[in-house]
Specification:
heterodimer, A: 294 residues, mainly alpha, MetI-like fold, two-stranded antiparallel ribbon, 10 helices, B: 268 residues, 9 helices
Chain lengths: 294, 268
């Protein structure tokens, strides 16, 4: 990257380090940090949306919809989440291919599951075997995002369901007394008020979401764990200008520090938001704020 | 092979007894159930041992964090922050890399590079940090009256801790601690996916479940079986901890007893 890096054998100390840390492979590592951040940025709102939908469904008067909502929110209980991650990635992939197979090759007569193989016609393969590398990578990332959203949507649904029930009953009754319909009371009274009750649970969930991002590695995305493993491994002089023994320890220590800083920053920011939201609320924390100000 | 033969061959496969070769070709339901169940032995081993040993460190950490002396408070706070603030997955990777390089320094660290000890150490520290935070929260919410009553009786130091503070702390923390135990058992599934090698394919329940899913391209059989086993395990934990909870609360009137509620806090 720097002009003095052209001949690595002459480098010493810090200048060696500055060259080593800016090689092409290391730039990939830095880019993968953005992969993780992108995942968080997409997953958080989508999961919140799924959660909101499921929580409303669980409150519905229509029985099958309620079953769906309750079933979805309770899948997360009792089973390790990593099992969900491994399950959903394959299951979603097969579901998409199966649907495309049904649409694109209606005259295919062989069974799709042949013994231990899953066979669909060539046109239904996802992504198509002719498509370029980046399509494969994006598709893998998309599957990962969807999986994260489904799993965390279930957690968020649990939190939001609790928050909806925490809104004082009197508020809804007042809305009904004003002649609002069920739908109006839901959107105008319940939804704006539930956030303050939901926030502690949601901020906890955000922390959990941050801490689960290394699982991306298990889903086959080239994330920071992948690159840390790759770069930390033993490098011999034959394949690189920067040979070194097994440096996994340093790379994983760096990841550890990265995650610790990330959680610390989130903690501070979420605390600020909480202070902001409790302002003027009829809760113990809101009351304490009012007293402190007076 | 009939199902009984399969069970004989693979029931203790994860510990290295019985048939060496894993089943091939067509996989029967019986093979799924037996092998995944056999892997569950490792989950129970990691979870139970980490929980039992971690409990003592957790109490020490909670008392340390509660102490007014910064000499005790600061290390406890940092320990809890480091283990709660970073992903367990990275902790496993880091610990494995650490033990691997320490192995070169001294033969003493040899067993630490295998999962049965190395991963146990990580899980021990991890659960100690999470439970330490729970116990610390419970220490904060001990009723003031209890402490004042102990003072009135002239109890101090160790005596007061053993008779008043500790039992009350445990009683208040128990519902949350039950959850911690459940999620610790769930976290044990990460061990063989995070650097620690499964020696001679002796892995845990998830290891075998993903083995089947990889071979058959059919996730709809092994993962639900895994889920079934873990739900059973969760129920066992809830009933065991519920038994202790009833014992801890036996002096209280019926309506004041805290019932454990399953809350989600999940993935570490």
């Amino acid at each position: 990257m720097f002009s003095y890096c052209t001949d690595p054998s002459t480098l010493e100390g810090l200048s060696w380090l500055s060259c080593y840390l800016t090689t092409g492979k290391h730039v990939n590592l830095y880019i993968s940090v953005f992969v993780v951040l992108t995942l968080l940025a997409i997953t958080a709102p989508v999961a919140l949306l799924f959660g909101f939908g499921a929580a409303s469904a669980a409150r519905s008067k229509f029985l099958p919809l309620r079953w769906f909502g309750k079933g979805y929110t309770s899948i997360v209980r009792g089973v390790p989440d990593i099992a969900f991650f491994l399950f959903f990635v394959i299951a979603l992939d097969q579901a998409f291919e199966w649907m495309r197979h049904k649409v694109k090759c209606p005259d295919w007569d062989q069974p799709i599951r042949q013994g231990i193989d899953f066979v669909v016609c060539d046109a239904a393969k996802l992504p198509l075997s002719t498509s370029p590398q980046w399509v494969h990578e994006t598709y893998g990332f998309f599957l990962a995002v969807l999986t994260f959203s489904i799993v965390f949507g279930a957690f968020a649904a649990n939190v939001l369901y609790g928050a909806m029930r925490a809104v004082p009953r009197a508020q809804i009754e007042t809305a009904e007394a004003y002649g609002m319909t069920h739908r109006q009371a839901f959107w105008r009274i319940l939804v704006p008020q539930m956030w303050v009750y939901a926030l502690p649970g949601l901020s906890n969930l955000w922390m959990v979401l941050i801490k689960s991002t290394p699982l991306l590695f298990l889903l086959g995305v080239e994330d920071i764990v992948y690159w840390a493993r790759e770069l930390g491994g033993t490098k011999t002089a034959r394949f690189t200008d920067y040979p070194h023994p097994n440096w996994h320890v340093w790379y994983f220590a760096a990841l550890l520090v990265f995650y610790l800083c990330f959680t610390k920053v989130s903690e501070v920011v979420l605390d600020r938001i909480m202070t902001r939201l409790t302002k003027g609320q009829a809760t113990a924390a809101g009351e304490a704020q009012r007293k402190a100000a007076a | 092979m009939s199902c009984v033969e399969t069970i004989q061959a693979y029931a203790f496969r994860s510990l290295g007894f019985g048939e060496r070769l894993l089943p091939r070709g067509e996989y029967t339901l019986c093979e799924h159930f037996t092998l995944i169940g056999s892997g569950l032995i490792w989950n129970v081993y990691f979870g139970a041992l980490a929980l039992m040993t971690g409990f003592f460190l957790a109490v020490a950490l909670a008392v340390g964090k509660f102490s007014p002396n910064p000499l005790f408070r600061k290390p406890a706070e940092w320990f809890i922050f480091v283990f709660r603030g970073s992903p367990l997955f990275i902790q496993f990777f880091f610990a494995y890399a650490c033990f691997l390089s320490l192995k070169g320094v001294s033969g003493f660290f040899d067993p630490f590079t295998s999962a049965w000890l190395g991963a146990l150490v990580v899980l021990f520290c991890n659960t100690a940090a999470y439970s330490g935070e729970i116990f610390y929260g419970a220490l904060l919410s001990i009723p003031k009256g209890d402490i004042e009553a102990a003072d009135a009786y002239g109890m101090t130091g160790w005596n007061r801790f053993r008779r008043i503070t500790f039992p009350t702390m445990l009683r208040l923390a128990w519902p949350a601690y039950t959850n911690e135990a459940i999620f610790l058992f769930h976290a044990t599934t990460l061990v063989f996916f995070s650097g620690f090698p499964a020696w001679r394919q002796q892995g845990d329940a998830l290891y075998y479940a993903s083995y089947f899913a990889d071979k058959t391209f059919n996730p709809f059989v092994p993962y639900p079986i895994l889920a079934f086993y873990f739900i059973l395990l969760t129920l066992v934990i809830i009933s065991l901890f519920g038994f202790v909870n009833r014992r801890l609360n036996r002096h209280l009137p019926q309506e004041r007893r805290a019932k454990p509620r399953l809350r989600i806090s999940l993935i570490r």
